[in-house]
Design goal:
Two copies of one chain form a homodimer.
Chain A (H helix, E strand, L loop, with lengths): L3 H6 L5 E5 L2 H9 L3 E5 L5 H15 L4 E5 L22 H13 L20 H7 L2 H12 L5 E4 L6 H10 L3 E5 L2 H9 L4 E5 L5 E2 L5 H12 L4 E4 L5 H9 L4 E4 L13 H9 L5 E4 L7 E4 L2 H8 L11 H18 L3 H6 L17 H24 L1
Parallel strand pairs in A: 1-2, 1-9, 2-3, 3-4, 4-5, 5-6, 6-8, 8-9
Antiparallel strand pairs in A: 7-11, 10-11
InterPro entries (chains A, B): Aldolase_TIM, NMO
Organism (chains A, B): Sphaerisporangium flaviroseum
Keywords (chains A, B): Flavoprotein, FMN, Monooxygenase, Oxidoreductase
């Protein structure tokens, strides 16, 4: 079960696993796939610690790092002297306070927009990390480890990222949601394109994987393409290869694995959700990102009193602080907080009904891929 | 290149072609696929004439008919004594008149909501046809011809349709956009399920083909499933088979064929469109249906003065009358009418860049399917 990129990346299966959890990254890499750590939630020091841990686990097997480098950010947020929190309008802070009151979310101190997130960090640090300068710090740390890929999750990889990666001999991947973006990313130096359909979790465009992948493959050839969005089993992996992709990039499927650090309340929501229970909403980051439907998305997207989402990274700053507090309240059993709690996930959430080890997910996908291709061979020969 | 349904339906390729144009239906059937005529625009007498023409063309080769039987219609519209036009509120008529004035659409007489559509018929006839009683008349006509399939495009096939089809020995197909609908359709007697992703043209749900098809296949087994939405080339057909479908159901790809009766202005828009140029909008029928973005969809969906779409079939009645006039004005060169003109089409519109005979489309799809499956066999053996 090999495509050309297997040789290029030193892996057994053309299966790339995006996760914010180091245990998932290590487990997939050890199972013969390629784990990619999402670095946005980390400070450079934290990232260094996580990657050192992964290095010890995978013992030379290949893995990668994904950083969020927004192509277009709110200009006010790029002033290095400014405190990002100062740019959040009063009406948005008030709306979050209103949601806390309406849903009875307790707070041991007065709620502060941008309060500490899941990883101990200040709001300003979090905000800066998704600016160009913030991402550069993470890139430097990542390239000091023996990574096999560095990915830009949003927007064109900046020249500094491409230059540094080239100098380190590390291929650059870029996620795209349109043909035009794919063309631009290859022009900017991407060595691998991840064509991500609208059904994917997190930041997505509007075009489905089925429609997007063949167009991107034709546009960027001979640059290899991974398919992302709607892929969580072996039949979907087979479909991605049939569309012309050289492999797949999966994110959502790991969120309900044993290794995932997904908060228990959210994990239970995911296990119970159908494929109708996600929405593309700006309410978490300021850009359209697919996530579980919850009171949080409904209030921001539909309530008449909603001020609407702020641009990135301001909405991210406001939302992640509030959702960290909501998450803690939800885990301690507060019913209103449980209604609000959500997380990024793709439409495949409807298939995720059981907690499994990440390694088992890999093996089951590869086995089903094999069965699916055998069935297709029979059809073709008939 | 055969699946089980090829034997069952007497076809060479598991490729079902939905079209409102009899020439496309006949061409695909003659090329070894299975043409399905969309009957909603016809009166029973017209349908009889169209099917007699197809009978003469295909000489015993299999084809089918698709009727629109809405599961949930505006109750006021089911009163057989009422004139449907009387149920269209003044504010909606006024908004259409406003659009005609704003875009300078000429009218040789005062615009009347529900005025004659592309096929000569009264608005009331058109409206009734999408009620249960209207659809029944079309079903009776269809079953007097040697059809190999009768399909329900929207909602559960009503008992009368299933009974009549059973008595005539004709399998019943039903289009679904969710797993729950698939379960219900099989319960109602559907012999074949068409699982249609959100990327499809016309009435669609929210779940993508990649995510929907495997779930529907698992839910309704052993009832066979066709995949629809996002399928317009052989790689996409291969992907559908990889997902577990027994075949594919394509609609959009025929709209730019030589045989299609697509109005020239709309055909040119389709050839120029990218996959970003469609939208799911209620503005044509009252239910979410994917179509070209145009001034028509933007005004109904986004303008502050828009009264919002009426329920089906009232919006359909209002829109089809107006769009018929807009279409005529667009073809005669009126620029405002050209901005408004649109039609149902899926996201694959971005792939449709060249007018081809329908037969060539079939052969190219099958050839590319063959290449795609060969590539996959190599990957599996590697």
């Amino acid at each position: 079960m090999r495509t050309e990129i297997c040789d290029r990346f030193g892996i057994e299966f053309p299966l790339f696993a995006f996760s914010h959890c180091r245990d998932v990254v290590a487990a997939v890499t050890k199972a013969g796939g390629f784990g990619v750590l999402g670095a946005v939630a980390y400070s450079p020091e934290q990232l260094d610690r996580e990657l050192s841990w992964i290095d010890r686990q995978v013992r030379g097997r290949p893995y990668g790092v994904d950083v969020l480098v927004p192509g277009k950010i709110d200009e006010s947020a790029s002033d290095p002297g400014a405190r990002l929190l100062d740019f959040i309008p009063e009406v948005h802070r008030d709306f979050v306070a209103h949601l806390f009151a309406k849903y009875g979310v307790s707070s041991d101190r007065t709620f502060t927009a941008g309060q500490a997130g899941p990883h101990p960090t200040t709001a300003d640090e979090l905000g800066r990390r998704v600016t160009h300068s913030g991402a550069t710090g993470l890139i430097d740390v990542a390239l000091r480890h023996p990574i096999g890929l560095i990915a830009s999750a949003l927007g064109t990889p900046p020249p500094v990222m491409v230059e540094k990666a080239r100098a380190a001999g590390v291929p650059v991947a870029a996620l795209v949601g349109t043909v035009e973006h794919a063309r631009r990313q290859v022009g900017a130096g991407a060595d691998l394109i991840v064509a991500q359909g609208t059904e994917a979790g997190g930041h997505t465009g509007e075009v489905s994987t089925m429609v997007l992948v063949p167009q991107v493959v034709d546009t960027v050839a001979p640059v290899p393409v991974l398919a992302a969005g709607g892929i969580a089993n072996g039949r979907q992996m087979a479909a991605a290869l049939a569309l012309g992709a050289e492999g797949v990039w999966c994110g959502s499927v790991w969120l309900t694995t044993e290794e995932a650090e997904t908060p228990p309340v959210v994990k239970r929501k995911m296990l119970a959700a159908t494929s109708l229970d996600t929405v593309r909403s700006r309410s978490r980051t300021g850009k359209p990102a697919r996530q579980l439907v919850s009171a949080w998305t409904k209030e921001w997207d539909e309530a008449t009193e909603s001020p609407g989402a702020l641009p990135m990274p301001l909405q991210m700053l406001l939302a992640e602080g509030a959702l960290a507090r909501i998450g803690a309240a939800a885990e301690s059993g507060e019913p209103g907080a449980r209604e609000l709690a959500n997380y990024f996930v793709g439409q495949v959430v409807g298939q995720l009904n059981q907690v499994k080890p990440a390694r088992q997910v890999v093996y089951e996908m590869i086995e089903e891929l094999s069965t699916a291709t055998e069935r297709m061979s029979k059809i073709t020969r008939a």
